[in-house]
Write a structure and sequence with these properties.
Rossmann fold; six-stranded parallel β-sheet; 2 domains; 227 residues
Length: 227
Amino acid sequence: MLILHPNFMEMKQKELKAALFDLDGVVFDTEPQYTIFWGSVCRQYHPEHPGLEQEIKGSTLTQIYERWFSGSLEAAREDVTRRLNDYEQQMHYDFLDGFEQLIRDLHNHGVRTAVVTSSNMPKMESVYRYQPAFKSLFDAILTSEDFERSKPDPDCYLKAAERLGVKKDECIVFEDSFNGLRSGRAAGMKVVGLATTNSAESISGLSDIQIDNYVGTNYETLSELIS
């Protein structure tokens, strides 16, 4: 008679069931464009702090405002928001090398996919115009309107897993920013770090593997992280 170990189900090899992607610097190669925008803004409002545009990478707009546009500069938020909205309308949203191939490979193996971004719906409308097939690549798209708490809180990734009907240990998170990487880690998920915004060395402590783009990354290599 076959007698199963009480923890047999836990002993079984875990399976990759969902891939959760941040947007900027992860799906799209947009970080250089944002560096140009924030460089202009920071030089205007914080000339005393050269290189501030590098420090705020990966921060949400709310976090930037709370830290750098409070007090006497709070009135500048309206101008910055207007300029940012106008800028995002004109941006290029080009996929990172190998991304579309990876998505197809994941879908062919039954892996569900989602975007988990702090971007808002006006920004996403710009994305949809530039990339008409964007929505068809994902099973779910979660934006800032879907979360109560911003990265590095795990709320966004836990909500994404719930939306897709998968467990957190069946998910892999793809992130580039320190806050995003911490969010994925705090959610109890495996994390792939994209070295598009920060160096591979600087994000190595917050991610399980580091990649420059998706060339050479596929279902098989990612499954090894989950098992």
